[in-house]
Amino acid sequence: MILGRSFYSRKSTVVSRDLIGKKLIVRKSHSGSLSGIIVETEAYGGLKDPASHAFRGETKRNKAMFGEAGFTYVYFTYGFHHCLNLVCGRIGDAQAVLLRAIEPVDGLETMRERRGRSISDLELTNGPGKLCQALGIDLSLNEVDATKKTSPIYVLEGVQDSSKRTIASSVRIGISVAQERRWRFFDSRSPYVSHRSKLNLPTR
DNA sequence: GGGAAGATGTTCT
DNA sequence: GAACATCTTCCCT
Length: 204
Description:
Elements: H1 5-8, H2 12-18, E1 23-27, E2 33-44, E3 72-77, E4 81-88, E5 95-106, H3 108-115, H4 128-135, E6 153-156, E7 167-170, E8 184-187
Antiparallel strand pairs: 1-2, 1-6, 2-5, 2-8, 3-4, 4-5, 7-8
Helix pairs in contact: 3-4
The structure holds a DNA duplex.
């Protein structure tokens, strides 16, 4: 079952936690179907969150976040990397969830071609930039509707037994403000989360 | 295994 | 001109 508009039309903190264990699918022409189980996310709170790109209002770059829930927000950062978000909440809230890591399932060969021959399975998609490189996500996939099965990006209801997961939270990575918000969520039993060993201790 | 440095486009001061 | 929702390489323990 594909996750629809109502799934995303909730607070980003709730969506962020609920996305753990769901299956991300990326289908682009010529590269076949790539997929993975989401194991790590971060919530961003829009206009009221000093850590969010939306904090200072709408710009050309963050426009997607101000639109409808269930659409993608892809941005380019550090001059090198793309990051993939899914817009949440109500129109104008500018809330979003950053996808930080997945456990690769389908298309490992394609992912490895893009990431480098010698990269191990564990390091193919354990970070927001790595995940986008492996899946071939760039700005051409910004602002696409992820609630349609015809879309190049969408998310399916989890196939994993939820009893095999333990969802933990921590502070957001690479963020120096709003440290009181532990808005990074991850499966603490998964070896596919981004490796910042100290932060992977379950804090809740 | 872990810290520091460097790469480099977009946005903001 | 600096900061940045990052990643890799290089060197140190």
